Amino acid sequence: MKQFLSAKQLVIMPLSSLHRLADEEAGDPTSDGRRLTLINNTSRCGSTLLCQILNAVPGVRALSEPWTLNHAHADFVKGRIDMVALKSFVRSIVRVQCKQEKCGKASHVVLKTCSIGASVIPLVAEMFPSAQLVFNTRNLKGTMESFMQIESSLPRSAKAAEYLTGKVIHGAIIAVNPAYIKVIVSGIRWCRNLSI
C-alpha cells in the first residue's frame, strides 16, 4: 500500500524494454564488489525493523517488500507465463531493483521479499549464486499475537486485504487466496484458545 501511495510516477513499458534495461543499464547486482542479500520472513517477525536498521548503515540500501517478484510468480502459477519467462522476469526484476544508484553509495543491496515471496528465492539464488540468503522468523505465539492485534484494530475488509494481498482499494478485497484465509483464520482461532 505504501508503494502505491508513495509513487511519484508510473512507467509502463513493453517487457522487452524491461529486459533490455536490466541488461544494458542495471547489470549484475553482485558484480564489481557489490553484495546482494535476500531476506525472506514469516510475517510479523521484525523484518521491517531489520530493513530500517540496515538502511541506516552506510553503504547499504534495503528494499522492503517490493511486490514485483510476487506478481511475476503469480503470472507463472496462473499459467500466463512458463518457467523460462518466469526466470527471465526474476532476473530482470532483481537487476533493475538492485541496480547501482547514480551516486554509487550503496555497495550492498538488501532485498526483503514478503513472506509469500519465498517461492522465487531459489530462482534468485540460482541466478545470483554469490547472494546471501537470510530467513527471519519469530516464534508462532508471538507471530499470532501480533496478527491478533492487527485483526482487532482494523475493519474486516482491510484486515483480509492486508493479510492476503497487501492491497486495499476503496475497502474492497482483491485477489484473495481462500487457502491463505483458512490458514490465517485457523491460526487466529488457535491462538485465542491458548491461555496467553
Summarize the structure.
With 196 residues, this protein is of the alpha/beta class.
| Percent of residues in β-strands | 5-15%
**Structural class category:** alpha/beta
Nearest-integer average pLDDT: 79
- The global form is globular
For the termini, the CA-CA separation is 31 Å
Number of domains: 2
Name the poorly predicted regions. 168-176
Question: What string gives the helices and strands in order?
Answer: HHEHEHHEHEHHH
* Rg: 18 Å
Strand order of the largest sheet: 2-3-1-4
Helix-residue proportion: 40-55%
Our count of helices gives 9
DSSP strand count = 4
Q: Tell me about the biggest sheet?
A: 4 strands, parallel
Folded structure, characterized:
By secondary structure, the protein is an alpha/beta fold. It has 2 domains: 2-136, no CATH class; 140-192, no CATH class. Helices cover 49% and strands 11% of the residues. The chain has helices at residues 2-6, 15-26, 47-55, 68-77, 83-97, 121-127, 140-153, 156-164, 178-192, and strands at residues 35-41, 60-64, 108-112, 132-136. Helix 2 (15-26) packs across helix 5 and helix 4 (68-77) packs antiparallel against helix 5. It is globular and about 50 Å long. The protein starts with a helix and ends with a helix.
